[in-house]
């Protein structure tokens, strides 16, 4: 049975004091034995204080990006070893903002995924289509391209800590979420792609989060879809109340599935 997994992507938001307060409020409500996996991914400079604020709770620490090379002359970049050193359990890779604003290619994303997997750092790999691609009927083709390129050369036994986040670009930060049916259709497609590529065991075990304007009032319906195993939350992860309401929805759906 796949455990529900709710991750908060804080993007380039918060400051040290506000982020620490937010992390403390979340950690207080998520005990170490929580039935859901919960993660916060603060901005890079705050990883250490946020890591301290969530220590001992059921909240894990994640990073929003990494570089694939080992330490060396790469000004401004952060190695995967450094993220592990400060307590990160996961790294979010291939987010649409990095693909579109920072011009990251599938090839670069693949190098990052491979390096994180090799180092034993969990990966949340984001995939998703733009509105033009959805309207043009190419959603599955786009997902297939991003998955096959992003996971190129990876072996089935290497992807046990891999999470896919389906994030339709048109739903990110827009307040317009995918309908539960649209989310389920994309997730089922992703799962069947994973089964074909890595075998049915990996396909059945891999968690697929939905991301794109998840809020307390739509979380239960989205998370209630059979192939939706959690959420990657942007805006609503910046307030403890709204993030915890989504965590609670995941907990309820998870309990009903057991
Ligand atoms: C995200 O940044 O991954 C995201 C899904 O953002 P939002 O929840 O704000 O749409």
Distance between the termini: 8 Å
Write down the domain tally.
1
- Which residues sit in consecutive blocks of at least 5 with pLDDT less than 50? none
Mean pLDDT: 97
Question: Can you identify the CATH class?
Answer: Alpha Beta
| Count of individual helical segments | 11
Question: What is the H level of CATH, i.e. the homologous superfamily?
Answer: Aldolase class I
The set of bound ligands, ions and cofactors reads: phosphoenolpyruvate
Strand content: 15-25%
Order of secondary-structure elements = EHEHEHEHHEHHEHHEHEH
Coarse shape: globular
Tell me how many strands there are.
Answer: 8
The third-level CATH topology is TIM Barrel
Radius of gyration in whole Å, from Cα?
17 Å
Summing up helix and strand content along with how strands pair, one would put the structural category as: alpha/beta
Secondary structure elements and pairings:
Elements: E1 5-9, H1 16-29, E2 37-41, H2 47-54, E3 59-63, H3 80-85, E4 88-93, H4 96-100, H5 106-119, E5 122-127, H6 131-135, H7 139-150, E6 162-166, H8 180-198, H9 200-205, E7 207-211, H10 216-223, E8 230-233, H11 240-257
Parallel strand pairs: 1-2, 1-8, 2-3, 3-4, 4-5, 5-6, 6-7, 7-8
Bound molecules: phosphoenolpyruvate (PEP).
Sum up the structure in keywords.
alpha/beta, single chain, TIM Barrel, eight-stranded parallel β-barrel, 258 residues, binds phosphoenolpyruvate
Give your account of this protein's structure.
This protein is α/β, with parallel strands linked by helices and 258 residues long. It has a single domain (5-257), classed as TIM Barrel, CATH 3.20.20. The chain is 45% helix and 16% strand. It contains eleven helices and eight strands. Strands 1-2-3-4-5-6-7-8 form an eight-stranded parallel beta barrel, surrounded by seven helices. Strand 2, helix 2 (47-54) and strand 3 form a beta-alpha-beta unit. The longest helix is centred in the last third of the chain and has 19 residues, at 180-198. It is globular. The model has no long low-confidence stretch (mean pLDDT 97). The site of phosphoenolpyruvate has 13 residues, from strand 8.
